[in-house]
């Protein structure tokens, strides 16, 4: 190995280790489950909510940056993930349960305060999805919201989500393939945990993610990692998913129709907290049929009337908070400091 490359590798590894060691970890009991949280800093709380197949770890860059700016950054492993409990029933993965966890966590973080605490929230993927519902259910607990990748999705009364997705994309669409309990987990075992995680985390095709059933879950063992995702990062994710498995995270997808049923009362409801939305132009969610028109054509503003800004970052995929960490850190701070 070239000496300069070796030194850079050692410095990068050392910086990563220092970054990780500066973050504190503990377990809190919320809403009947034990939840692992990572936190750093003192000041106003910023709740950082991850998606699939992520963990608290996806926010490692934001945790350190926010703490340096005078915030208390808190990133939980959501239920079903990492070192947080994973209830077995799919019915425990709707927004009612997830938001229940988050409200209880906010209460636990503010237990020494006389008044009910408000927090800033930053969500990505499923974390963004449930952040929208947190703001619908309990808007008084959120000062401001920054959501990444997943825009607000109005409830369509006429058709269940899986019916719409199957009609649009077919049986091989990843959300449809995730529906049968145990089936995709078996394919993930066959492919190997590291390969599955690399496949998802490096996905940059703006088209729909398809997993043809007859081809099983195809992976490339030699898949190159981008510069924002290191071997050490993959190893951390693997260490947790090999222990916990993927079922908890997959149950979020399996609960989408039940969630649709349980949230009928919020049909047409608006999110009435200040919001900033950020997405990469290569993100598969941004390129889904009708999404760009909804975001830029007034639909998102209709349902999120306090939407202040929409940012589209060019040449960026779905895992935007890791791929463009410094840029996202700046966007988060510039928005939150107004409150």
Automatic annotation (TrEMBL):
It is an enzyme of class 3 (hydrolase). It comes from the Eukaryota. The keyword rRNA-binding does not apply. Pathway: Secondary metabolite biosynthesis; terpenoid biosynthesis. Residues 1-20 form the signal peptide. Epoxide hydrolase involved in the biosynthesis of cucurbitacin and mogroside tetracyclic triterpene natural products (e.g. siamenoside I and mogrosides IV, V and VI). Cucurbitacins have cytotoxic properties and exhibit deterrent taste as a defense barrier against herbivores. Mogrosides are nonsugar highly oxygenated compounds used as high-intensity zero-calorie sweeteners; they also possess pharmacological properties such as regulating immunity, lowering blood sugar and lipid levels, protecting the liver, and acting as antioxidants and antitumor agents. Residues 44-324 form the AB hydrolase-1 domain. It catalyses: an epoxide + H2O = an ethanediol; (24S)-24,25-epoxycucurbitadienol + H2O = (24R)-24,25-dihydroxycucurbitadienol. Pfam families: Abhydrolase_1. Its EC number is 3.3.2.10. InterPro entries: AB_hydrolase_1 (IPR000073), AB_hydrolase_fold (IPR029058), Epox_hydrolase-like (IPR000639). GO terms for molecular function: epoxide hydrolase activity. Keywords: Hydrolase, Signal. This is soluble epoxide hydrolase. Belongs to the AB hydrolase superfamily. Epoxide hydrolase family.
């Amino acid at each position: 190995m070239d000496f300069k490359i070796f030194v850079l590798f050692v410095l990068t590894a050392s910086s990563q280790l220092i970054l990780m060691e500066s973050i504190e970890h503990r377990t809190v009991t919320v809403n009947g489950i034990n939840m692992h949280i990572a936190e750093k800093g003192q000041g106003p709380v910023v709740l950082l909510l991850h998606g699939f197949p992520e963990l608290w770890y996806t926010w490692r860059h934001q945790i350190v940056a926010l703490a340096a700016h005078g915030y208390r950054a808190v990133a939980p492993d959501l239920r079903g993930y990492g070192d947080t409990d994973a209830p077995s029933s799919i019915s425990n993965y709707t927004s009612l349960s997830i938001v229940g966890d988050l409200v209880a966590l906010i209460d636990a973080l503010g237990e020494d305060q006389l008044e009910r605490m408000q927090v800033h929230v930053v969500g990505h993927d499923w974390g963004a999805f449930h952040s929208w519902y947190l703001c619908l259910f309990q808007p008084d607990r959120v000062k401001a919201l920054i959501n990444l990748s997943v825009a607000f999705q109005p409830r369509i009364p006429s058709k269940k989500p899986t019916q719409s997705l199957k009609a649009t994309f077919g049986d091989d669409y990843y959300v449809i393939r995730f529906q049968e309990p145990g089936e995709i987990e078996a394919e993930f075992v066959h492919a190997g945990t590291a390969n599955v995680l690399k496949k998802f985390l490096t996905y940059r095709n703006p088209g729909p993610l398809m997993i043809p059933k007859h081809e099983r879950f195809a992976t490339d063992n030699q898949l190159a990692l981008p510069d924002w995702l290191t071997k050490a990062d993959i190893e951390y994710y693997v260490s947790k998913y090999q222990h916990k498995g993927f079922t908890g995270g997959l149950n979020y997808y399996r609960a989408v129709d039940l969630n649709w049923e349980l949230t009928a009362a919020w049909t047409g409801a608006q999110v009435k907290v200040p919001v900033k939305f950020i997405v990469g132009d290569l993100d598969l969610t941004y390129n889904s049929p009708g999404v760009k028109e909804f975001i830029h054509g007034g639909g998102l503003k209709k349902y999120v009337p306090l939407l202040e800004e929409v940012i589209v970052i060019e040449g960026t995929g779905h895992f935007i908070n890791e791929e463009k960490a410094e840029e996202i850190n700046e966007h988060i701070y510039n928005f939150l400091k107004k409150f």
